[in-house]
Amino acid sequence: MRKIFVLDTNVLLHDPGAIYAFDEHEVIIPAVVLEEIDSKKRNADEIGRNARTVSRVLDQLREKGHLHSGVALHNGGSLKVELNHRSFLKVQEMFGEISNDNRILAVALNYHMEEADKEKPAQVVLVSKDVLVRIKADVLGLNTQDYLSDRTAGLNELYTGNLKLKVHPSIIDEFYSYRFLSVKPLQLSFPLNPHEFVILKDEMGSQKSALLKVNTEATKLEPLYLSNDAVWGICARNAQQRMALELLLNDDIPLVTITGKAGTGKTLLALAAGLLKVEDEHKYKKLLIARPVVPMGKDIGYLPGEKEEKLRPWMQPIYDNLEFLFDTKKSGDIDKILMGLGSIQVEALTYIRGRSIPGQFIIVDEAQNLSRHEVKTIVSRVGEGSKIILMGDPEQIDHPYLDASSNGLTYIVEKFKQEGISGHITLEKGERSKLAQLAADLL
């Protein structure tokens, strides 16, 4: 069935490649969308970059013909910048105000009414990431949907990095005898991923169990290499935290992703591992800790003071954890310690762009507020001999165009889960306090 997709501005500002995401169907860009994109093109953040990208893509397509008449796309579809179908009468009866959102609704509605009179009408669909626009479209009787092409998986389907298997007790005994297990005899109906953790449980109901890790080639299960000794005074309090430390302290895994609710220990574990590797083992030259200033790339010059003073409010959660690890007693002690060490650097992601970062232990906190493009930009900064840790809570997102399934953190987790150079773990149990765990579960 032929379909006509009318795109809202936020779809193109979120993903400039959305023009090509609708296969052989017709894509309509209302003229007011071009005006909104033009108003964003001077922004210094990702929205501004995407606006400029959309402009360049449309300019290239313009070479194929007049956009207001429609041009063919390489995927078999077509694109048209709509100058007609702008009658506002029907929408005005319902919502009154002449806003840009309502103008886009009017284009979709007029197309819908025109197609309804044809013998073989096309289905008209308004695509928007704005929930209220979709609600208004539904009130008008229009087909509407969110832009889903960039989504990886539903929140409950995301890769966790660990699983539990019930097996015959003889298999557990075999592991303890030979210190490894081949994957094939397990006869699993799904593939295991490199560096995935497996907890074996006795299917007969005894207390026998074993904690194993899939090797780099995903061909066998091996024991964890690390004991549960303290790392800078921090001991794993549950199985998932021990898995996280196994990944964080393994120098052969340059990319580690950690997800989990607030209070599960993501930041503290990563900082403890980083301090051990940089200060004690001298494996890396520097510990670089970064957080996105939300919205990422926004100028923070309106805050008083030098760069460090401007960053302090955004970076305070990092300093809180460092104060705990260094066991400081007085306010300001942590600043003196960091100044004396010289090997620990706290930055906003705004200042990472354009850099090459070799030989460093890099921690990116709150990575769920990064888009796919931003994650690609950051990970591609990692130089030879560096290790990068991306962590965050996909359920706590401040970015207006991202959600639990489309943010950069979950995107990189899903894309790299089968790669031998990466490892992932989802922390499940809160260890901050009983109150924090209850708040994370109930609120």
From TrEMBL:
Keywords, in A-Z order: ATP-binding, Nucleotide-binding
| One GO MF term | ATP binding
Instruction: List the GO cellular component terms.
Output: cytosol
One Pfam match, given by its short name, reads PIN_4
Q: Which InterPro entries match?
A: P-loop_NTPase, PhoH, PhoH2-like, PIN-like_dom_sf, PIN_dom
Highest taxon listed in the record's lineage: Bacteria
Boundaries of each PIN domain copy? 3-135
Q: Where are the transmembrane segments?
A: none
Family classification: In the N-terminal section; belongs to the PINc/VapC protein family.
Query: Know the name of this protein?
Result: PhoH family protein
Q: What is the lineage of its organism?
A: Bacteria, Bacillati, Bacillota, Bacilli, Bacillales
